[in-house]
Q: What sequence folds into this?
């Protein structure tokens, strides 16, 4: 979930100044529109790791926007007054009215998150608190409020650098205390709790995850998202009024944050999760043969052990056209006995499947205990091809991230080992493989016109994959990114990951 | 919540036969339309107490409808096959496709309910399971499915009669076993768990609570609700298509079950919660004076004790115009010291209040620890006057039941004693009081044209009050129904209830 926020995005000072001035003007104008129309309240929530720049970003926004119509609230331990009322009293009290923007620091997420990280509550109690958060936000959204949530992220190393940097500066060192270092040491627990909080509260009002390392990038990313989403929400209200519908009816619809596109007109750093992959990784043929045999033997023993123990496995393959899914799958299945696995190629849904919820056809393929199910493409089609090709509405694919997380949570809770592979190849490598297919008679059937059309949408797919990894990859159910330019390297890595995940599940 | 389903509604055999034939034809016609348009799947869930007639109703529907396009599923303990997959596998597998109706007995509610009643799980774990139920149903509804949920209720006495009746019949006695009697003895726990389940799963797809005593009434009520809701959903789809919107976009909207109206064209027994009130109850003047003094003294001591212990109280008064709220409130406040209570008269919202969520103005009035807050009218305006007068959209007031339950749950969890009074007067008594106000100079200001207008909508208000009691009255936060034709009787009962609830909270 957070790997997409550890890519080292940066914005140079000169670009920053230019973009900043335009953004400020636009934000002021939007504030004016919002106020004049008394359109709706805007609730902006900031959360994330210490040092991720929550406070600094809020200060910047206060500087850029019109402070008369902006409220900022931060919450520490509840006061006596506050303790005498239900927990949410202080949040309700501080909500902005229609026409205004409220910025909330360490808000209704803070206490439950810390309680979970410090093990004062268990998962069930945590979920219950998150359910209350959802009910609160849903009630506001149903009433027409625009809710924006920013998760400011820093990787563990970046957080350390940030804390050390603050400590060294005599003017800022007061901001770092032992508690901060304690939290830094618990970075892993914090990330796990954060992932749970984000997946459980993204059904209606999804989070935007912001890389917090570079202040320039951070400020622009947050401000741009606010600008885009406010504009879209005001437009929606306009259309709604033009249709003659009363304002009070403009509720119930899901809010999609208009995030900063990788390739949008915003010209923010165009980095996707792929930028962290070393696409030059290679394995020699001789080494490959040796390793392949070894890994297949290891997997063979593991899959038999899992079968005996009744532990099912799902291996799910996604990747660009010609990324080598088929070849990788064959190397995996050769390590197993045919009666113990099934490969499900996911293509166009059948008529029967089309008459059901899109997840139905995946539920029906869940195997009996101990078996291995291999999905060649999967339920992620909803947020990849269906999104990019416009085969499904934006509402539907946005909602799908939460539905998929719910689905996978049930698989994992049941003890199923779920391994999700993304096979990545470079654009040039894809072209080379397409040409090879074209020129090799027995491979020609593999290449269709659709493959060429998909290729034209390379950038849109890159955006979709990046969003998918961000919203559905967690430490519990990670995306395994496979550098696929070298088929041998990719196949070995696929096998190795399968072995490691099975070993972990079997407690080996 | 269930008192509205213990009113002894009955339908005579002759009426039953007549209505049944029309309903059957209509249901068959609707099935045909649904099938031809492959419009959406219809999921009908039956739950409730043993003997409430879940099974019998499902049999009747199978008899009435076209069995080729109807599926019935019931779930016992999971089989070996089922145990090897996640819990919801068997439910997903059995979902009806678009164009068909599925009837589900003892479905995804059953195991969690029983686990809670038998104390195998605690409230937090129960809530978590209910959250999964909600996510499941929401995913289906988002996809366009129509979800209908019927809770078949029997009071404890009626359930006993039903079990005894079955036992006496040699042909049916096999249907009653020791487990049924054990469940009967746990009727109270079952009701508490049921109330929690119903309030937590009614945000999107609300339940219809059906009185299960009389088979004729039960069958007609369920079938009529199905007919009305299917008709409305098909209409909605039509309008949607006429607007040129794709079918896939017809999701996201909240489904409101078109329940059997008290005064609808359905001519089902017109009984509301008021039918259980004995409106002839009276107290003599001499007795009143004695009792009043005694109760006020008792309340005085209790409110001081609550203050010392920091236990806050909210007394909320709703009732028809001229039902005597003001007089009752004055009898309460006279028992307390002015600095310890505040009375909040709830009238038109101010501009500031209008710029916020409708619950905001009630949150702000929550008092410090130990104080008493008296609301003269309340947040229930949303589902009473705003509903009846059409001041808010149907979506908004339907949603409000769940929002109000969430709100009150937070009050009660915080330890606040919440007493909700409904003061009821008869239609004739109201007229007499209006006339008296008209003829008494110093009372004339109390009577407005609006009062006369409201009076014309007596029946619509009765329906709204009945729904309110059904959907927001639970054993934890009950509605205290006050027979108000005799002011003396009403005032004493208001005081007595306040004392009892405070004593209970103080552990006296």
A:
């Amino acid at each position: 979930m957070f790997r997409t926020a550890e890519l080292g995005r940066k914005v140079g000072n000169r670009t920053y100044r230019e973009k900043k001035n335009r953004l400020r003007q636009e934000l002021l104008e939007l504030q004016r529109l919002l106020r004049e129309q008394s359109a709706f309240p805007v609730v902006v929530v900031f959360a994330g790791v210490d040092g991720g720049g929550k406070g600094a970003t809020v200060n910047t926004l206060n500087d850029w926007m019109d402070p008369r119509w902006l409220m900022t609230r931060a919450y520490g331990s509840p006061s006596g007054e506050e303790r005498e009322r239900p927990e949410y009293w202080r949040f309700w009290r501080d909500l902005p009215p229609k026409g205004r923007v409220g910025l909330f620091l360490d808000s209704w997420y803070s206490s439950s998150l810390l309680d979970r990280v410090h093990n004062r509550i268990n998962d069930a109690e945590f979920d219950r608190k998150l359910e209350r958060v959802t009910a609160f936000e849903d009630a506001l959204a149903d009433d027409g409020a625009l809710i924006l949530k920013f998760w400011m992220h820093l990787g563990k190393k970046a957080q350390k650098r940030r804390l050390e940097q603050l400590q060294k500066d005599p003017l800022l060192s007061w901001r770092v205390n032992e508690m901060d270092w304690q939290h830094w040491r618990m970075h892993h627990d914090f990330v796990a709790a954060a992932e749970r909080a984000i997946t459980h509260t993204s059904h209606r009002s999804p989070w935007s995850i912001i890389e917090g390392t570079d202040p320039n990038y951070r400020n622009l990313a947050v401000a741009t998202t606010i600008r885009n989403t406010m504009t879209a929400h005001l437009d929606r209200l306009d259309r709604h009024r033009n249709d003659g519908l009363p304002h009070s009816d403009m509720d119930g619809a899901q809010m999609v944050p208009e995030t900063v596109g990788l390739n949008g007109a915003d010209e923010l750093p165009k980095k996707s999760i792929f930028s962290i992959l070393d696409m030059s990784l290679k394995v020699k043929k001789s080494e490959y043969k040796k390793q392949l045999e070894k890994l297949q033997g290891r997997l063979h023993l593991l899959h038999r052990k899992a079968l005996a123990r009744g532990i099912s496995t799902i291996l799910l393959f996604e990747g660009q056209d010609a990324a080598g899914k088929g070849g990788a799958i064959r190397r995996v299945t050769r390590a197993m006995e045919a009666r113990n696995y099934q490969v499900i190629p996911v293509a166009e849904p059948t008529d029967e499947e089309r008459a059901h919820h899109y997840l139905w056809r995946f539920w029906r393929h869940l195997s009996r205990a101990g078996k291995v199910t291999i999905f060649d493409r999967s339920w992620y089609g909803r947020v990849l091809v269906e999104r990019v090709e416009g085969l499904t509405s934006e509402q539907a694919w946005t909602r799908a991230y939460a539905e998929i997380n719910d689905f996978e949570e049930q698989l994992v809770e049941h003890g199923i080992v779920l391994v999700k592979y993304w096979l990545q190849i470079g654009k040039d490598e894809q072209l080379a493989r397409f040409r090879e297919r074209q020129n090799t008679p027995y491979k020609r059937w593999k290449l269709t016109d659709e493959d060429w059309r998909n290729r034209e949408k390379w950038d849109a797919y890159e955006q979709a994959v990046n969003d998918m990894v961000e919203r559905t990859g967690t430490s519990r159910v990670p995306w395994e990114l496979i550098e696929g330019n070298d088929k041998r390297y990719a196949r070995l890595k696929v096998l190795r990951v399968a072995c490691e995940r099975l070993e972990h599940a079997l407690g080996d």
Notes: The beta strands of chain B are 42-48, 70-74, 101-105, 146-153, 207-211, 313-319, 341-345, 372-376, 417-424, 479-483.
